[in-house]
Amino acid sequence: MNTSNQNKIIKFLFNINTTRQICKVCGLPDYFNFNVPDKIWQRIVPRIYQNKVVCLPCFDRFATIKNINYAKYFSNFLFVGDKAYFTFKIIEALDN
């Protein structure tokens, strides 16, 4: 993702803190934005949640249940809080 698109996503997410996305699995606010390829998403996330907001902890639980390693596919990791946002650079990604 180029910097311009990433900045647009950050601005969008940062401006929706009163209408923050809610994870459709656990019902908690979603403070992280992350990407994995569609094929990995489709293998990990149950069909019922395929086109819904799934937070990182729920995504990780699904991957654990299905024993699917996803660390090397993880990208564009952002935390969007109520007062600040952070873009994380992934230096190393390891599966347990």
Verbal overview:
By secondary structure, this protein is of the alpha+beta class. The protein has one domain (3-88). Helix content is 31%, strand content 15%. The chain contains 3 helices and 3 strands. The chain has helices at residues 3-14, 38-44, 56-66; strands at residues 32-35, 75-80, 85-88. Strands 1-2-3 form a 3-stranded antiparallel sheet, with helices on one face. Strand 2 and strand 3 form a beta hairpin. The longest helix has 12 residues, at 3-14. The mean pLDDT is 84.
What is the strand content? 5-15%
Strand order of the largest sheet: 1-2-3
Number of helices: 3
Alpha-carbon distance between the two ends? 27 Å
How would the global form be characterised?
A: globular
Low-confidence stretches: none
- Number of domain modules: 1
Provide mean pLDDT, rounded: 84
In terms of structural class, how would the helical and strand content be classed? alpha+beta
Let me know the number of strands: 3
The ordered H/E elements are: HEHHEE
Question: What would you say about this model in short?
Answer:
By secondary structure, this protein is α+β, with helices and mostly antiparallel strands. The protein has three helices and three strands.
